[in-house]
User: Fold this.
Amino acid sequence: MSDSSAASAPRTPRQLADAYVDAYAALDPGVAAGLGVNLDDERQPDLSPAGFDAADELDRRTLEALAALPADIRADPAEAACARLLTERLGARRAVHAAGDHLRSLRNISSPLHQVRQIFTMLPTATEQDWSVVAGKLRNTPAALRGYRATLTEGLRRGLYSGPRQVETLIGQFDGWLGADAGSSWFADFVTGGPDALRPGLDRAAAAATAATADFRDWLRDGYAPAAAGAPDIAGREYYLRAARYCTGADLDLDEAYAWAWTEFHRLDAEMRVEADRVRPGAAPLEAVEHLEAHGHAVKGVEGIRSWLQQLMDEAVAALDGTHFDLDGPLRQVEAMIAPAGSAAAPYYTRPSLDFSRPGRTWLPVQDRETFPTWQLVSTWYHEGVPGHHLHLTQRMRCADRLSTFQMTLGSVSAETEGWALYSERLMDELGFFTDPGRRLGFLDEQMLRTIRVIIDIGMHLELVIPADSPFHPGERWTPELGAAFFAAYNGSPAEMRESEIVRYLGWPGQAIGYKLGERAWRAGREQARARHGAGFDLKAWHMEALSQGAFGLADLTEQLSGL
Assistant:
């Protein structure tokens, strides 16, 4: 190593974590687009086996460099926290890669394939240079899809298959990307906003991306699907434990989590029955939901619901600022968006760019609807927007003076971030934002949804027995079919949402349990901090400190929160 290289080499865990983010962004243009860096890079991610191996090699080198740092550096609590997160996250990633799970990662949400399209929603489009980059990424989309076809083919060779439900769902999503009419597609529609001078090139590049998407869909249908036809949809215990470790940052006691979720189910079922009676006297929960769907408040039109959701978040910012949070700058800037056609049915959030030039955004899939009942959307948008994901992830990104970029971004743990968002829904109930019976039933229904996720995600993948005190099929073993029936019996989400959820759980094992288990960790940390401070506990101060800390897995989260 030269003198100059030695001088620039990372000397602390935080410096190493920052170097890792820079290297990963250079390796993966999708990550770079999400962070808002390297915006002149026209590449798409390398989704071939070699691309995944390159990311794993970066993880390996980073862990080796971390282990070589002087041990006394970790005496600093901030450095120790960063080192622990880096070790846990990269170790979990390497375990997933070593098992070959990336070779069968077909799912209806947040898969590598979705990144190929989502990257365009992250890019700036204000100048001709911006659109020139868009054209380049479109031209590189066929190579990205060919790369992932090679990855899935390698999975087939090794006997690592995605389940038939995932394949069928992805084929349907690609149909949505491609559109109903010849020559139309999401890509073709996207470039209509480009400058006239570049339109011929943009149109050609969009046509190439469209053709490549159609080819990939056809290969899934005609090549992959027959080969994987007999594959199980469930993960099994070994795969599930590995996936849950990555999604939660903890080695979970799955039997304890499963039993606890049933306790929550019984509590929520009783509470929903009380609230349903307030919506319509004598009605059971699903009868009250039917009433709200038919006669409750609803918004007409896609632009109408987007505007209504924006107003809901703006009102939440105004109501919470100065009382339970301190909200300024980018914390007040969140945009309600409509999700692209061919998305999964679940709403989602995308964080801002590192420089905040692109704000945080919530996304609503409309699924060809024109009328939008709002009884359930209120709680959902507190989850996705304010005070949920937007406040959490944006405030964390404002803490560059105390955190590494890794702790603010790539080191995020799904269960921690989703746990905060679900905590936020319950916080809004505690603060009195659900006085309307319909909206409060929507909040409880969302809580039930996340509880059902724990029960059937663990239950289906591990083929557990339904307990004797269950009102639903006691003594039987979970199957995807029973999971779908249980969902329909105890949650008021539309049928297309429920169907999408079942496919999601089967294709992304261990992720769905993090919402409710993460909320449990957040609430336990808050109550332990309250007990420690006594009468001096300041909830607003605790919220801002909690939002300003780096990412933690569930193995550490409650203890960290209790000490704030």
Q: What stands out?
A: The radius of gyration is 23 Å.
